[in-house]
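Hi C.,

You asked whether I'd gotten around to modeling the 529-residue construct. I have! Everything is below, sequence then structure, no commentary in between.
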Amino acid sequence: MLSTLECYYSHSDCLPILIDVTKKQYFYNVKNPVWFVVRPLVYNSTSSRFPPNISISKIIKNMTIERWNPAYPYDQFYKSCAPSFCTYSKRVHIKTIAEFRDFGSDVDQLTAKRLGQWATRLYIVLFLVTLISIMFYNIGREAYTKMFDQPSLNSTKQLYEQYGNELKCPCSSIASTYERFVKIEPVFHEMCSSPFTSEEGRFNLTANLISKLSMDSEKRPLSNYTLKDYRRFLSAHLQFLQGLCQLSNQATKISIQGFLSLLFSMIEVLSEENFGIQLNSIIQHKELNSSTILTDLLSLIRGIYHGNAIISLYGTNFEYIHPDRELNGVYLPTQALIYDDECSCGLHMNCTTPANFIEANPSTNISIQGLKIGCTPSESFRASTLECFYNQSCIDLIQQFASKPSRFNLTNPFKSLSTNNSRFPINTTIDKLINSLFIKELKTTISYLSYFEQCFPLLCSYTYIRQSSFLSIMTHLFGLQGVYRYRKKHINTIQPTDLANTGTTENINTNTQTSPSNSELTTTNTTPP
């Protein structure tokens, strides 16, 4: 990723040397070779944005794209759209109020006028009645607020039972971390706490197995086991299971610590019921998302391993092909192995077949419940189940073929797993257990007392609407009337006075007093009759 492509450009002396060495090796190792001319790259600063000395990592970050050549063929868009019809909108003014002044041909104009007057009066009366009714309804409803200073936890619970969600208790603290009132303890699959996933248990269970599990030059195992004998895979499966349990434990702890360090917004005190519902929903959502830490890591490793066609140490995904003639070079062809349903390890990484213990003399195959072998030990174990470890007879069978006979004469630590209190069926695949991080249960402890202490409300209030009494309504009306009369008595009227040529003053208002001055402004209090 840190390398550059300078060697492949025309100005470099490296490319001819590289082509010459490659050509010699190719002609030496390949029968009837067909060669082709390799031309160097030409750098043009006007057409390329990647100079020769740029690193490959930067080219990959730009997805090896020099430039985009966008094209917008409208005819192809129209064909894809294929409209069945077209519409357009036009704004039209429509007369929505109609005048009906015709009472019939047998009604004279005077009668029609009188009926129109009565209809208008009736409309005004109904309008006033409706307006007064609405006014009385609004005046008759009053909002009352009850205040409770620094309520305790028990008082708040009682208030919530009495007033429900109408109770408002603002928090004195706006946020707090989850770890102050939430504790989460994961309970993992019983397999992760069994002797099968411990270092000592794996060593004791596989003590009788031969360590040389790879293949020789003749495609024969270096041990006495055949290619598909499960004894070649048992130790790798147990080691992989141990690593999965450890990674699941670490990923879960990281996820829980990250969640507990987040802030929980506290605008107002939630009731104990709503607080529990909200937190359980948040924790459940967090549990579903935490498995991506482990699954993304494993997906990356699987993709790299399969994409590069790395040959397994066990020789279970690819095998070497001996050519017709002796080769002195470094190249040796390979071919992918085929498993059940004509599944090729060259195309698919998850090809498997049921696991068996194979005895050479006499030739017998003893199947093992739930376990599989395939292209690689890790991929075959992902497709396996743990059914064998729930069956004591199956465990004894593994011990018979893998352990030393005298190792467990006194006590046998390998007991079958219990099916009690487990949310996973015994036929659950390892792949599904990985997606669940082997978590059987998340024990969550929520302390409402700690949450209340963090929130620490200084005040609780409850607002409700109550219908006013007749006396209260009349008090409001008389109060409005008093305000109206008070305002009318204190209206100040300012009017100019004009002195006529004859020296007399003509009052514009009968209640306005004038003075002999020519352009004086007189202020009087005017009270209407």
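If it helps when you're writing up: The longest helix spans residues 109-140.

Thanks,
B.
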